[in-house]
Design a protein that fits this description.
single chain; alpha/beta; Rossmann fold; 7 helices; 24% helix
Length: 233
């Protein structure tokens, strides 16, 4: 029996086995679906991008119409970055991605958002550890942003790597806030509704904290799914 998917790339990384694959789904009238797996576990798909796009749109809505500089932690398939670039108010966008192969997928044109990101002079793709950057021990980072958006872990309680845990602590969130300009916005994607303790910790660093449930029909699973977007300002 022929495979139902085409493997576009396979890499051994510091986080484990990383796979990019493409499949044509009969339920989507043959439209190609791009999927990412890490250590054999499903990580993301191009078939449903509602919440990733909402991370950008809700954060920009909270900021307003003024020009802004944006930092995104996590590139993935580029959905959040592409949505942010759809706003004329975005002056400059930096996307920090830990895994070099993920950036390479875009440079090689293997993923559908590649052209949007690479052809826009406002967008800069950076290989690096986002969590180390915002944990800058100096406490007064040279670079500040108006918006910082994060889509890396499954949730504040479920991490891709144990070293990410510190970011979601009170001290980690304090250091994050130091990278924001006055009135700045922190946006977080989470597959599950974050624990009350995390929301309370956010409230100690930000004036307002709001949670948005993003529900959508999953055409391949034939069921309603939902993710959570947290916006703190």
């Amino acid at each position: 029996m022929a495979k139902s998917f085409q493997e576009l790339d396979y890499q051994q990384t510091l986080l484990g086995e990383l796979v990019l694959r493409k499949r044509n789904s009969a339920s989507l009238d043959g439209r190609p679906v791009f999927e990412v797996k890490l250590n054999g576990e499903f990580l993301m798909s191009s078939v449903v991008t509602h919440s990733e796009e909402a991370l950008a749109s809700l954060s920009l809505q909270a900021w307003g119409d003024q020009a802004c500089d944006v930092l995104i932690g996590g590139l993935g398939l580029g959905c959040t970055a592409a949505a942010a670039l759809g706003s004329k108010s975005v002056r400059h966008l930096e996307v920090v991605e830990f895994l070099e192969p993920v950036i390479d997928w875009h440079r090689r044109g293997l993923v559908p958002m590649a052209d949007i990101l690479l052809d826009d002079p406002r967008c800069e793709l950076i290989q690096g550890d986002f969590f180390k950057y915002v944990a800058d021990p100096a406490g007064k980072p040279d670079r500040r942003y108006d918006l910082i958006l994060v889509d890396i872990d499954h949730s504040p309680e479920s991490w891709l790597h144990a070293t990410h845990e510190a970011f979601y602590s009170s001290q980690g969130l304090k250091r994050l806030a130091e990278h924001l300009n006055p009135g700045g916005v922190f946006g977080l994607w989470s597959a599950d509704k974050p624990a009350r303790e995390f929301i309370e910790q956010l409230g100690s660093q930000f004036t307002t904290v709001k949670q948005h449930t993003i529900s959508y029909d999953h055409p391949m699973l034939h069921q309603v799914e939902s993710d959570t977007i947290v916006i703190a300002q």
